Amino acid sequence: MKQVLLVLLLSASIALTAQSVIPLYPEGIPCANELLEAERTRENIGRLITSVHEPLMEHYPPVPQIATGGAVMVIPGGGYAVAAWGHEGSDIAQRLAVEGLHVFVLKYRLPKNESVGCRSHAALDDARRGVQTIRMMADSLGLDRRRVAVLGFSAGGHLAASAAVHYLEADSTAFPAAAAYSSRPDLSIPVYPVLIMEDSKAAHQGSINNLLGPQPWDAELLDYYDLPGRVHAAMPPTFLVHAGDDKAVPVENSLRYYAALKEVGVPADLHVYAKGGHGFGSAVQTDLPVREWMETLLDWMKGYGFVR
């Protein structure tokens, strides 16, 4: 049995080197910018995306023998200014694909770099289109369009939660073809997420400034993206992870969001670890209890048929 498992894991590691790129807007990018694609490498984080012209997804397929039919779209964080592609993107994708999941890492437009008229909605547009595209491609990829989760970190957690709150209904009459599918994720997984948007110490002011521009913020947009106040009963089951000693994005973000979800009857799990700080990613680099969060997540996903 161990030999079979080793063969499967080796096959998975080989398969993960051959991920494919999936454009989000083959019909043309709305609110297209003139930016050049740019990135750099940072110690302990790896690849860091600093400028995005073409939104896309990188697909990490599982080995066919262990595929469960479930899919996860992963959204790296970075304060809506950069995207921690290695630490919170490809590393996470490789771990989840070994569990039999199709994983798609979202390369979304970074609001800080966008024009005033596009800044507040370009990233959310990309996230919603990502879910729709996964569902549109479900038959060709051999996955179940009824099992699509969205997992995001930090500001990427805000984007993942925004996709769960402000989803698009399926519209078979709309163009392009992806619009025929709902953008509502079947599971929502915000990890040390930015969720509160207000002028207080609980909020991550940098993320607000990058998403909405400098103060004074547009009151309607601020309310739209202050997610604890926008939850509703039709949202998907949610799994929240945070560290109590997070000094960048206070744990109150997850606490307030969890309370709001419970108030409207959305199934929600909240896992708060005493220590872990901010930006721990998969947490494999630490011996703290937060190291177990991904195993706990996988156990939770089993209950929804995503993993075996």
Short structural summary:
The chain is of the alpha/beta class and 308 residues long. The chain has helices spanning 2-15, 86-97, 116-119, 122-136, 138-141, 155-165, 205-212, 219-225, 252-264, 293-302, and strands at 20-23, 38-42, 46-51, 56-60, 71-75, 102-107, 148-153, 187-191, 238-243, 268-273.
Describe the structure.
Residues 1-17 have low confidence and may be disordered. This protein is globular. It contains 10 helices and 10 strands. The chain is α/β, with parallel strands linked by helices and 308 residues long. An 8-stranded mixed sheet has the order 1-4-6-5-7-8-9-10, with helices on both faces. 47% of the residues are buried. Helix 4 packs across helix 6. The protein is 32% helix and 18% strand. It has a single domain, classed as Alpha/Beta hydrolase fold, catalytic domain (Rossmann fold), CATH 3.40.50.1820. The chain starts with a helix and ends in a 6-residue tail after the last helix. Helix 9 (252-264) links the parallel strand 9 and strand 10 (268-273).
- CATH topology, by name, is Rossmann fold
Q: Return the string of H and E elements.
A: HEEEEEHEHHHEHEHHEHEH
Structural class of the secondary elements?
Answer: alpha/beta
The biggest beta sheet reads: 8 strands, mixed
Q: In what order do the strands lie side by side in the largest sheet?
A: 1-4-6-5-7-8-9-10
CATH homologous superfamily descriptor: Alpha/Beta hydrolase fold, catalytic domain
Shape: globular
What is the total domain count? 1
Beta-strand fraction estimate: 15-25%
Task: Give the helix/strand layout.
Blueprint: H1 2-15, E1 20-23, E2 38-42, E3 46-51, E4 56-60, E5 71-75, H2 86-97, E6 102-107, H3 116-119, H4 122-136, H5 138-141, E7 148-153, H6 155-165, E8 187-191, H7 205-212, H8 219-225, E9 238-243, H9 252-264, E10 268-273, H10 293-302
Parallel strand pairs: 5-6, 5-7, 7-8, 8-9, 9-10
Antiparallel strand pairs: 1-4, 2-3, 4-6
Helix pairs in contact: 4-6
